[in-house]
Design brief:
Layout lengths: L2 E7 L6 H9 L6 E7 L6 H5 L7 E4 L7 H11 L4 E4 L5 E2 L3 H11 L5 E9 L5 E5 L8 H6 L10 E3 H6 L12 H8 L4 H4 E12 L5 H18 L1 H29 L2 H5 L3 E2 L3 H15 L8 H5 L1
Parallel strand pairs: 1-2, 1-4, 2-3, 6-9
Antiparallel strand pairs: 4-8, 5-9, 6-7, 6-8, 7-10
Helix pairs in contact: 7-9, 9-10
Length: 300
């Protein structure tokens, strides 16, 4: 298999059928799926074990080790030349793997590619697409934007992920991708690439201020650790101030009951043509039968 799709999951029984359907809907079929359970208790593991396809490996040790450890485990176990990230509540565009593999093969200097994303809600309704935060991926721009690549949209060379493992330190939880991009920030220019066309349907649930606060706290620690060289001391202090300002704004919005609306400002509306195209792609992805699962379960 030339591509390993890494799918860590933890209590994702409700969304896993659509995620799996979108994997089986890929136009590129030379893949293996490594699905790693992180100690689920909702039937997710039992559902995954129903899938009947020789390309699918389901791993479980009964423990909860968190995302970074599972991502590193997938990289070690992968047999593909390329490794594609996937979250168990998102949906792949059917051409995602084909497009990303073609780009990585065409440009040998590239290590990691990601893409723009559509955004869907818990009921798989289209909400828009995420704004592109970085037009030109310089280290300073990526640092200020708190990242460059949408984490579950990423595909890269398996060797790169083995050489640059995710930090498994507890303080990195909820921002392990930001920490990794900042640790490898010297590679941003020329070795990372962002597709302008959406290749992923990212599921955005209800805003949770507690989780947001934790992400911002980790983000500040990452900035304090890595930002001085690309931004200088004054630039680093300004960026930390921006982090605090954003957190206070969301805290106020959360108390007043419009944090979800504020979060929605990160989305761009779709034109009628874009919406029709996205809806068609989404329906195609989530309606694909999954061997071993009831065909209707994927469509919800």
């Amino acid at each position: 298999m030339s591509v390993t799709i890494g799918l860590p999951f933890f209590n994702n029984r409700r969304t896993l059928p659509q995620t799996l359907a979108s994997i089986f809907a890929q136009t590129y079929t030379d893949w293996e799926l490594i699905a790693i359970d992180d100690g689920s208790s909702d039937g997710s593991l039992e559902l995954m074990r129903q899938v009947r396809d020789p390309r699918v490996r389901v791993l479980s040790d009964g423990q909860h080790k968190a995302l970074s450890a599972r991502l590193n485990q997938i990289a070690r176990a992968a047999s593909g030349e390329f490794l594609a990230r996937m979250d168990a509540d998102d949906v792949m565009h059917s051409r995602r793997i084909e497009a990303q593999v073609a780009k990585l093969r065409a440009e040998r200097n590239l290590s990691v590619v990601g893409s723009a994303t559509y955004v869907i809600d818990d009921a798989s309704r289209l909400l828009g697409k995420r704004k592109v935060q970085v037009a030109v991926p310089t280290p300073a721009a990526v640092m200020r934007a708190r990242g460059f690549l949408v984490h579950p949209s990423v595909c890269g060379r398996t060797a790169w992920f083995r050489d640059n493992p995710y930090s498994e330190a507890s303080w990195c939880e909820r921002a392990q991708d930001f920490e990794l991009w900042m640790r490898t920030i010297d590679q941003i220019r020329g070795r990372f690439y962002h597709f302008s066309q959406p290749l992923l349907f990212y599921r955005m649930g209800a805003f949770d201020y507690a989780k947001y606060r934790k992400s911002m706290r980790v983000g500040r620690r990452v900035v304090a650790r890595y930002a001085v060289r690309p931004l200088g001391r004054i630039g680093t202090l300004r960026l930390l101030g921006r982090f605090w300002g954003q957190q206070l704004a969301y805290r106020a919005a959360s108390l007043m009951g419009f944090a979800q609306r504020l979060s929605g400002r990160r989305l761009l509306p779709l034109t009628a043509g874009e919406e029709a195209e996205a809806q068609q792609a989404l329906c195609l992805a989530i309606s694909q039968p999954v061997p071993g699962l009831d065909a209707m379960s994927a469509a919800g």
